[in-house]
TrEMBL record:
PROSITE patterns: L_LDH (PS00064). NAD(+) binds at V32, D53, K58, G98, A99, V137, T138, N139, S162. Catalyzes the conversion of lactate to pyruvate. Gene3D superfamilies: Lactate dehydrogenase/glycoside hydrolase, family 4, C-terminal, NAD(P)-binding Rossmann-like Domain. The gene is ldh. It comes from Cellulomonas edaphi. This is L-lactate dehydrogenase. GO terms for molecular function: L-lactate dehydrogenase (NAD+) activity. Homotetramer. Residues 164-325 form the Lactate/malate dehydrogenase C-terminal domain. Belongs to the LDH/MDH superfamily. LDH family. Keywords: Allosteric enzyme, Cytoplasm, NAD, Oxidoreductase, Phosphoprotein.
Length: 333
């Protein structure tokens, strides 16, 4: 009698399952990495979560603390180690390790130290998890993603950045706050750099089925005037700086945004997310990692959506591409 592929030979009365389970590896057990592990576990995004960090005591303590709460989460296993082998055979690798952003420091200021770290660590991870989908989260994420593609040699579908998934969530939250509707009914994207040159795509934004530019307001809420839209756009860009100034790091929202990306990959959802990937021929933009609405599934980066844009939005996206590309060139990429 043949055994099913996922069951090993075992003594009578016992069977050993070797069915492959979803594995998430997180590189970096700092504020973002450990919170992302927590968020992924709470959402049941992966059956196995591995934390890697060079700080042995820190990473083991984070894994132990998370493990003590497994009883209250969807069943999973969590391990932490300073040995890169802990990432072996991961399905998804979230790269959160990097220099910490200080108050008043821009994301682009972080580039040099972070790229140096990526150059050292990423090739080691790809050796033990060659088939994983890689998601770069470390800032400045667009430049780091471009550098990581060059350093790793991975296909541009297999490695991408978390991009403006979080920024788009901030945008939707602020629109919902202004209009008095549920954030789940707001559909809007931030495109471009995850940073100061990013821009909201107002032309394609909607509340329910109503275009934002035509929203007249309900229950006393005011319309989405140009001044309101400008104020919201500024707040999206500045909110991270405010959070860093107040508490030293952003971690909760970015971890939830990251767990949403993880689910899109592991569950092959083909979800549309504004991730940062290598663009070539997108509205004439080439050879730069930038965020645009993109289909994300088990294979990583899918098709980019040709979102309708106004002339100003298209000019803004191209300017953002130039800004990111110029920084990448400074570091030899």
């Amino acid at each position: 009698m043949t055994q099913p592929d996922d069951i090993d030979e075992a003594p009578m009365g016992a069977s050993v399952s070797t069915r492959r389970t979803s594995k998430l590896a997180i590189v970096g057990a700092g504020a973002v990495g450990s919170t992302m592990a927590y968020a992924a576990l709470m959402r049941g995004a992966a059956r196995s979560v591995a934390l890697y960090d060079i700080n042995k005591a820190k990473v083991e303590a984070e894994a132990l603390d998370l493990g003590h709460g497994i009883q209250f989460m969807p069943m999973a296993e969590v391990v932490g180690s300073d040995d890169i082998a802990v990432c072996a055979d991961a399905d998804v690798v979230m790269f959160t390790a990097g220099a910490k952003q200080k108050p008043g420091q821009t994301r682009l200021d972080l580039a040099e130290a972070t790229i140096s770290l990526v150059r050292k660590v990423l090739p080691l991870v790809t050796q033990v998890a060659p088939n994983a989908v890689y998601v770069m989260v470390t800032n400045p994420v667009d430049v780091v993603t471009y550098a990581a593609l060059k350093i790793s040699g991975l296909p541009p579908t297999q490695l991408f950045g978390s991009g403006t998934v979080l920024d788009s969530s901030r945008l939707r939250y602020l629109i919902a706050q202004h209009t008095g509707v549920a954030v789940q009914n707001v559909h809007a994207y931030i495109a471009g750099e995850h940073g100061d040159s990013e821009l909201p795509l107002w032309s394609s934004a909607s509340i329910g089925a109503v275009p934002v530019l035509e929203w007249q307001g309900v229950d006393g809420a005011s319309p989405m005037t140009g001044d309101v839209r400008d104020k919201i756009a500024r707040e999206v860009v500045e909110s991270a700086y405010r959070i860093i100034e107040g508490k030293g790091a952003t971690n909760y929202a970015v971890a939830l945004a990251g767990s949403r990306i993880i689910e899109a990959v592991l569950k092959d959802e083909r979800r549309i997310l504004p991730i940062s990937s290598l663009l070539n021929g997108y509205y004439g933009i080439d050879d730069v990692c930038l965020s645009v609405p993109t289909i994300v599934g088990a294979g990583g980066v899918g098709d980019r959506l040709a979102v309708p844009m106004s002339d100003d939005e298209l000019a803004g996206l191209r300017a953002s591409a130039d800004a990111v590309r110029s920084v990448a060139r400074q570091f030899g990429f």
